[in-house]
């Protein structure tokens, strides 16, 4: 299932990762693990935030996917099933007519 992850990093923890030079490797590891179809980085609600769109095949993958954000970055994490335009079109075409 196509899934959107939003992770808002804890500012003091992210600051320390930037200061000690580990932030780049942490982000690289996350991107290798998730292999997202899209990855965006911004500021939201006053903190460093990343958005990843990736395929989650089983809900049992959730702990392995999000624990790095919780443990290493003390992040607030949200996961949402999402559709792209093709998915929406297919879903709408499957609705009963009438």
What does this structure look like?
The protein is α+β, with helices and mostly antiparallel strands. It has helices at residues 11-19, 23-34, 62-73, 85-93; strands at 2-8, 38-44, 47-55, 76-81. A four-stranded antiparallel beta sheet has the order 2-3-1-4, with helices on one face. Strand 2 and strand 3 (47-55) form a beta hairpin. The longest helix has 12 residues, at 23-34. The radius of gyration is 16 Å and the shape is elongated. The mean pLDDT is 95.
Overall body shape: elongated
- List SSEs in N-to-C order: EHHEEHEH
What does the average pLDDT come to?
95
For the biggest β-sheet, the strand order reads: 2-3-1-4
Feature tags:
elongated, 4 helices, 98 residues, alpha+beta
């Amino acid at each position: 299932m196509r899934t959107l992850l939003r992770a808002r990093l804890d500012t003091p923890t992210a600051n320390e990762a930037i200061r000690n030079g580990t932030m780049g490797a942490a982000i690289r590891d996350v991107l290798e693990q998730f292999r997202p179809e899209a990855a965006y980085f911004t500021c939201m609600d006053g903190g460093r935030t990343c958005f990843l769109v990736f395929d989650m095949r089983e809900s049992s993958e959730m702990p392995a996917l999000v624990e790095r954000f919780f443990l290493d970055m003390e992040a607030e994490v949200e996961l949402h099933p999402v559709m792209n335009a093709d998915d929406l079109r297919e879903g709408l075409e499957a609705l009963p007519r009438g």
